[in-house]
Amino acid sequence: MKQILPLIALGLLTACDTKTTTTQTTTTLPLFGDGYRADGDQCRRVGESAATVEYLDHTADLVACPEDYEGLGVFQADTGGVEVARIEGWVLFSVSREG
Q: Rounded to an integer, what distance in angstroms lies between the CA atom of residue 76 and that of residue 80?
């Protein structure tokens, strides 16, 4: 019996780890294009998903830039983008199509 208990305990720990892993969900941003403003830019357009639907606007582009992108301030100044959210390491900006 003493030999079985460690195996049972190991099985319970493994089950707990698996459950924790499967219950952690992430929202995948539907990024598209090769870069926003020019091919190769780090910022990209974002499409519609459950995580982004409240930030979409028919008069603006929704753009995501990496949080660690050194050019965030320049991007915001150049485009007039308004920060609307931060999701999974991305900063989301609403960038007006007018102007």
A: 5
> Quick one: pLDDT at residue 4?
53
Output phi, psi for 93, to 5 deg.
-120, 145
| More confident call, 84 vs 20 | 84
> pLDDT tens digits for 28-52?
799 999 999 999 999 999 999 999 9
Please tell me the distance from the alpha carbon of residue 56 to that of residue 43, in angstroms, as a whole number. 16
CA distance 17 to 60: 43
* Collapsed DSSP state (helix, strand, coil) of residue 35: coil
Phi, psi of 57 (to 5 degrees): -145, 130
Query: What pTM, to 2 d.p., does this model score?
Result: 0.71
